[in-house]
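Blinded run. Sample ID left blank on purpose so nobody reads anything into the name before looking at the predicted structure. Input follows.
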Amino acid sequence: MITCIDHIVILVRDLLAAIDDYTALGFTVTPGGVHADGATHNALVAFADGSYLELIAFRREAPDHVWWRFTADGEGLIDFALLPDAIDEDVAAARVRGLEIAGPFAGGRERPDGVRIAWKTARPATPDLPFLCGDVTPRDLRVPTGAARQHANGVTGMARVLVAARDLAESAARYRALLGAEGATSTEGITFLLGSSAIVLVALNEHLRREGLCALELCGGAPGNLDPARTHGASIRIGALSPQ
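Blinded prediction complete.
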């Protein structure tokens, strides 16, 4: 069973600069380490609800990397992951429901303290859908705990992610196949509840530059939009947001 939003991926050019900027926004940022392929390194902003932001930067050119194509557009929100209970079974169930999904594939990284962590990922074929990230080593090794989840700005977790879709009905059908659950239609879009958070599908329009993850709403703290210069292009708000 897919239980919740695992993490949000934010592409940055300079990881150290991004760490400084997110710290200035009141977040506690934890260095993550170098990924197994050596192409990327990251830092994490972990929340009390168990989800986190992943600030990721390329260490070298990597044309074959799944996220390399986003470097042409600059920094910002590029992807997000859901957490499965058992990734092999969840992938098999999604396929039975008609979803095209690749994997699971092995992944991992080495933390700055030398601890090696491992996971498996699976990725649907279309950009409106998130990927799955299931732990092989204990999740607490991958996601910081304790004081790392406390933030000066008061943020406690994910409220909603907004995802731009070219065709809402077709995208909703793919989400039903992935999650095994129905969404609720409103004037805003189509909402799928997942744990304490929600995924909201909204229509792609002239304000949204591409299909896929386009905005993020966080819980806790003082409501307001975060400075995109500090978020490195990511559209992030504390409190209710609009797809516009």
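Unblinding after everyone has recorded impressions. Residues 2-147 form a domain with the 2,3-Dihydroxybiphenyl 1,2-Dioxygenase; domain 1 fold (CATH 3.10.180.10).
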